[in-house]
Design brief:
The complex is a heterodimer. By secondary structure, chain A is an all-alpha fold. In chain A, about 70% of the residues lie in helices and about 0% in strands. Chain B has helices spanning about 5-15, 30-35, 40-45, 75-85, 105-120, 130-135, 140-155, 170-175, 175-190, 200-210, 220-250, and strands spanning about 55-60, 90-100, 125, 160-165, 195. The longest helix of chain B is centred in the last third of the chain and has 30 residues, at about 220-250. The termini of chain B are close together. Classes of the chains: A mainly alpha, B alpha/beta. At the A-B interface, helix 4 and helix 11 of A face helix 7, helix 8 and helix 9 of B.
Chain lengths: ~400, ~250
């Protein structure tokens, strides 16, 4: 028992804000469940209850994690050094993205051929790759071609590169936030976006989503004093979440209602876009953030419980867990297309959970091993100690 | 129309179609809520009588062009026309198919305009929305395109039947389908247009286990997809006749 405990503690790092790890792990789990058509658990994830979803949680916490890690380096070693670390991290993500792209394209393409389901290719936008493979490969290297599900890492990469540029501004939070908000506002007003080969903009527009990343970074590096009375914010957050709940549970599931809504309201609802991080989606994630801040203390006992441990572990190794989640969720889809009865639902989600946990555990073990050997003065690759995810 | 004849005629034709809750083909079993149009289609009622000349323009994406998007004869518009001809042999029914794989509603507008300019069309069947949902293009733009299409059809004096996406678990899970469905319902609330609720109909079929392409064995998929297109076509023919019947009934 105590041995178990000690093992868990060495794998799960606890000298940090566990809320960040936990919710990042939860977001990764939702990304897995939400990408399996027909998965019953996909109906109880965040997106079913509010207008923001796992992506907002992921990006906010990515910013938080990045500032925690590289902010420390910035204070210790300056902009050039810390900026170089951020760029190296972006490079790691880029390599992971290209690797994932190849694996995923092979997985989906082979499945489509074997099962005679050309629809997979269109649904995941891989038909582009089938039609003009060399062009698509080149475009994917420049992040100009992003199949479905493979658009989160490109966002993360660009966010990190932008972050490397503004790193010193962490010390001038008001200025950084003003710049970030200004870019967000301009992006929405002028419909700016980065280009893709297909003509449209990025599915997750980095020029807009940077606001969430910067917000997360500022919360970590320079936690603001809230000038408003907490009670007022409680009410505002509750109102935003309640309205989001109504939209998610009452309006969207019954499209026939649309004809009875005032046209301006429907027009507004149809405009709540994910690509440009619509202000209402932003408000929803802010409200959730506030709710967590008010309801979950950083040292909450349940965060250190056995039930929370798998999420902590996943959240602390989000890159490999995210990539595995994309591949596993497609396997899950194939399995559920054979049957989506209770047994298969249980099997897919359990197997997926165990798979993700195994990946996180291996990543944690390598990290712990690296840290131990460097403490012992053994020749090991220096642990970054600044890993943001 | 002043005369109740088209309505009576349509009612008689309706009885001839082997469809409905106790229809001959169990695969095509039509839940009662999908059997009938909730809106009258007066142009169709006027043209679908003996000696009448009903020109139908079907505009759509891959699924209008057959189970694999390459066999228009097996697509639901062609199957609809065949069922309609069987039910109304005295009327001259012609079908023109326009559109193509991967087209958005906005991209089909010029085709709609061109086709209505060059020939006299009594009924437009516009199948759209799937491409937008899969690409996640702005639902507000989609709504605007549908509304513009409606005004084009209205100006040409035809009736419009909108056909929404075919249900799939993928669409439900991985796209913002509800927003596009809302746009369909919003536009279909206007006069001169009805929504053939293919999404709900095919969802009901999936729930009933009759047509579940996402769960079908790969060897059985092509035949099942073709049978499904046929059933959608028959259901649509039924729907058209019921709309015509309503128009006749309400005109007196």
């Amino acid at each position: 028992m105590s041995g178990n405990n000690r093992n868990r503690l060495t794998l799960v790092r606890t000298n940090r804000d566990l809320r960040v790890d936990f919710f990042r792990g939860l977001a990764l789990w939702w990304i897995f469940t939400d990408h399996i058509p027909g998965n019953a658990l996909g109906r109880v994830s965040l997106r079913n209850f509010t207008l923001s979803d796992a992506t907002e949680v992921f990006v906010l916490l990515a910013g938080y994690g990045a500032a925690l890690a590289y902010g420390r380096t910035l204070d210790r070693a300056g902009w050039l050094y810390s900026g170089a670390d951020v760029v190296r991290r972006a490079w790691t993500l880029y390599v992971a993205h290209i690797f994932l792209f190849v694996l995923f394209a092979a997985q989906v393409g082979a499945s489509a051929a074997a099962l005679n389901r050309g629809a997979y290719l269109e649904e995941i936008h891989l038909d582009v790759l089938a039609n003009a493979p060399y062009r698509a490969l080149l475009d994917s290297l420049f992040l100009l071609f992003q199949p479905a599900y493979l658009n989160v890492l490109p966002l993360y990469i660009v966010l990190l590169l932008m972050f490397a540029l503004v790193l010193p501004l962490l010390r001038r939070p008001a200025l950084l936030f003003a710049l970030s908000f200004g870019l967000y506002a301009l992006t929405r007003l002028l419909h700016l976006n980065l280009p893709t080969a297909g003509g449209g903009g990025w599915f997750f527009n980095p020029l807009a989503w940077q606001l969430l990343f910067v917000l997360g970074a500022l919360l970590a590096y320079a936690p603001p004093n809230i000038p408003l009375p907490p009670r007022l914010l409680d009410i505002a957050a509750a109102a935003v979440l309640l309205a989001g709940l109504l939209i998610a549970r009452v309006v969207w599931p019954y499209p026939a209602l649309a004809a009875h809504l005032p046209p301006w309201l429907l027009a507004w609802l149809l405009d709540v876009d994910k690509t440009g991080l619509h202000p209402y989606r932003f408000a929803c994630i802010l409200a959730l953030l506030w709710a967590v801040h008010r309801l979950v203390p950083p040292r909450a006992a349940w965060l250190q419980s056995r039930l929370a441990a798998p999420f902590l572990l996943a959240g602390q190794h989000s890159l490999p867990v995210f990539c595995s989640g994309i591949l596993l969720s497609f396997l899950g889809r194939l399995a559920m297309e054979r049957s989506d009865g209770a047994a298969m639902q249980g099997f897919v989600n359990l197997a997926g959970g165990i798979g993700l946990l195994a990946v996180a555990t291996i990543a944690a073990w390598y990290r712990a091993k690296g840290a131990a050997s460097s403490r012992a003065g053994l020749p090991a690759r220096a642990p970054s100690g600044t890993e943001s995810s | 129309m002043k005369s109740p004849v088209p309505g009576i005629l349509a009612a008689a034709l309706l009885a001839l179609l082997p469809l409905g809750a106790d229809g001959a083909a169990p695969l095509c079993a039509l839940p009662p809520e999908f059997a009938a149009s909730n809106q009258p289609t007066p142009r169709v009622a006027a043209l679908l009588r003996p000696g009448g000349d009903l020109a139908i323009l079907a505009l759509g994406t891959a699924s209008s062009f057959g189970p694999d998007g390459r066999q228009p004869r097996l697509g639901f518009p062609a199957r609809m026309a065949a069922a309609l001809r069987k039910a109304a042999p005295e009327a001259r029914i012609t079908l023109t198919l326009k559109g193509g794989r991967g087209l958005t509603a906005a991209a089909m507008l010029p085709m709609l305009r061109g086709a209505l300019r060059s020939s006299k069309v009594g009924l437009v069947i516009w199948q759209t929305g799937t491409v937008e949902a899969v690409r996640d293009s702005p639902p507000g733009n989609f709504l605007a395109a549908l509304a513009e299409g409606l005004s084009i059809v209205r100006a040409a004096g035809a009736d419009l039947i909108l056909v929404d996406p075919q249900f799939s678990r993928f669409l439900r899970t991985d796209t913002n389908i509800d927003a596009y469905e809302s746009a369909f319902h919003e536009v279909a609330f206007e006069p001169g247009v009805v929504l053939f609720a293919r999404y709900e109909l095919t969802h009901a079929w999936v729930d009933a286990g009759s047509f579940d392409l996402e769960r079908a064995r790969s060897s059985a998929t092509p035949a099942l997809a073709a049978a499904m297109q046929d059933c959608i076509g028959q259901a649509l023919a039924h729907f058209i006749l019921s709309g015509a019947e309503k128009a006749g009934g309400s005109s007196r």
